[in-house]
Write a structure and sequence with these properties.
about 15% strand; binds nicotinamide-adenine-dinucleotide; binds magnesium ion; seven-stranded parallel β-sheet
Length: about 400
């Protein structure tokens, strides 16, 4: 029996995870669920999955949840509140598997706590890895934890690696990774129209149904930039060995190019329940509820190189991956602040890369040696981003 903590259970990945879990009550038991402040959704999940713990980061939301829980048939659930409670439930001895599906930097400390506890970490929260770099990978290795990628591309790459491959190691005989990208909603929009796109247009992804932050990242292609950094860390590959490929159908989820000329790929319908089920059951296979791929319906698969002029965030991310140090931390923090400002209609879509570039030039770079130095750099980058946004909107 796998015992689960789902961090970010009310989000898009969290909901898909619970959907897969509910199909296999004999294999998985939910021990802890967490969310930021969505009381109604977490309450319904408590009734349905009957965890031992439910964490609401927001104190007011936690007290509302407590009232509802106390009056319900799930009154055994212990309601906790605050960010520290996330790390507590992620490292419980009763838990062996943690789905890291909080969005953004807020997921770093609980994900790290899960790794330090030696748990199996199913990593959706790419920002946690990008900002902490080798520190999270080291925590996994030092504590005999297991890390499995949920991001569909990284999950596809892992599935296309040699059978004895371990995440974090260099794979033998691999020449290149082909990291696929849909190109998002603005792949063919005339570039001069990008200035005026609205948050609603940016979050309307053509192939994937996702949370708002990652949807904007897909529209700027920063998502692919973050994924390139993620791939460097997970597969121990230099940035130059990772080729980003625009593949608008989102049927091939990435490919591995071997020395002998073989190229292995993983295909499937664009539904996150496939990589989630793969990682939950690994090394076995379970039903995920995803429709089988109808290859005759797909008919054609297209590929093209990314357009750097249209997607300036891509180059910022590739440069950060190559230069290393705290650049990925600064890139990620600047992006989080900029995306939030865009979603609040405080800045334009095309301001997002400008904010990030300003952060990269303002924040002093270093080689991070501990998590506190990472958190300090993250905070400095957020200050720089907010200051630049104030200046932009003045
Ligand atoms: P989402 O916005 O739908 O859900 C985010 C979850 O995190 C919610 O449960 C929310 O309550 C919680 N949360 C938000 N802020 C928090 C905070 N400050 N503290 C604690 N909890 C907080 O996001 P999502 O689309 O499910 O994405 C989650 C992560 O998975 C992201 O890192 C994203 O990049 C990654 N990911 C998502 C997809 C996808 O298809 N949605 C695909 C690949 C990777
Ligand atoms: Mg992805």
């Amino acid at each position: 029996m796998k015992t689960l903590c789902v961090l970010g259970s009310t989000g898009s990945i969290g909901v898909s995870t619970l959907d897969v879990v509910a199909r296999h009550p004999d294999k998985y038991r939910v021990v802890a669920l967490t969310a930021n402040k969505n009381v109604d959704d977490l309450y319904q999940q408590c009734l349905r999955h009957r965890p031992e713990y439910a964490v609401m980061v927001d104190a007011g939301a936690a007290s509302d949840l407590q009232s509802k829980i106390s009056a319900s048939s799930a009154d055994h659930v212990q309601v906790l509140s605050g960010a520290e409670a996330l790390a507590k439930v992620a490292s419980l001895p009763d838990v062996n598997t943690v789905m890291a599906a909080i969005v953004g930097a807020a997921g770093l400390l609980p994900t790290l706590a899960a790794a330090n506890a030696g748990h199996t970490v199913l990593l959706a929260n790419k920002e946690a890895l990008v900002m902490s770099g080798t520190l999270l990978m080291q925590a996994v290795a030092d504590n005999n934890a297991v890390l499995l990628p949920i991001d569909s591309e990284h999950n596809a790459i892992f599935q296309s690696m040699p059978a004895d491959y371990t995440i974090g190691q260099q794979a033998h005989g691999v020449r290149k990774i082909l990291l696929t990208a849909s190109g998002g909603p603005f792949r063919t929009l005339p570039i001069e129209k990008l200035d005026a796109v609205t948050p609603e247009q940016a979050v309307a992804h053509p192939n994937w149904d996702m949370g708002r932050k990652i949807s904007v990242d897909s529209a700027t292609m920063m998502n692919k930039g973050l994924e390139l950094i993620e791939a460097c860390l997970l597969f121990s590959m230099p940035a130059k060995a990772i080729q980003i490929v625009i593949h608008p159908q989102s049927v091939i989820h990435s490919m591995v190019d071997y020395d002998d000329g073989s190229v292995l790929a993983q295909l499937g319908n664009p539904d996150m329940r496939t990589p989630i089920a793969h990682s939950l059951a690994w090394p076995n296979r379970i039903d995920s509820g995803v429709e089988p791929l109808d290859i005759f319906q797909v008919k054609t698969l297209d590929f093209e190189p990314p357009d750097e002029a249209r997607f300036p965030c891509l180059k910022l991310a590739v440069d950060a991956a190559e230069l290393g140090g705290t650049r990925p931390t600064v890139l990620n923090a600047g992006n989080e602040v900029a995306v939030e400002a865009f979603l609040d209609s405080r800045i334009r879509f095309t301001d997002i890369p400008k904010v990030i570039e300003q952060c990269l030039s303002d924040v002093e770079q270093s080689m991070p040696d501990c998590i506190n130095s990472i958190l300090k750099v993250d905070a400095n980058a957020r200050d720089a981003a907010n200051e630049f946004i104030t200046h932009l909107t003045r």
